[in-house]
Specification:
- The protein is built from 5 helices and no strands.
- Helix content is 61%, strand content 0%.
- It has 102 residues and is mainly α.
- The protein has 2 domains: 1-50, no CATH class; 51-102, no CATH class.
- Residues 64-68 and 94-102 have low confidence and may be disordered.
- It has helices at 3-22, 24-35, 55-69, 75-83, 92-97.
């Protein structure tokens, strides 16, 4: 990973942090919780995943959008759903890994 890419990821993290801090909606809810006698500690975790896109993959994206409408998922979609502990019917990796522990 290049230093420029690391810098951009750092900037993304800072932008997310600033968005949360400046959110009037979040501030309002926190204030309401404090009025009920509780202190609020808000900890957020952001996972940033990067996949390098090759020229061949970027040309294939318009066709991939159509297939997504038909109910198929890309590998990235499946990985994201797995991270949320959501299994997808027909995904053999999910069927063998996540469902045994439940």
């Amino acid at each position: 990973m290049t230093s420029r890419l690391r810098e951009l990821i750092q900037q993304l993290g800072e932008a997310i942090h600033e968005s949360v801090i400046e959110s009037e909606q979040i501030a309002g809810v926190v204030q309401d919780i404090r009025r009920h006698g509780f202190d609020v500690l808000l900890m957020l975790e952001a996972t940033i995943g990067l996949n390098e896109v090759t020229a061949k993959e970027s040309e294939a994206e318009p066709g991939a959008e159509g297939s997504a409408e038909e109910g198929t998922f890309t590998r990235n979609d499946l990985n994201f759903l797995r991270s949320l502990r959501i299994s997808v019917e027909g995904d053999t990796d999910t069927d063998t890994d996540d469902t045994q522990g439940e």
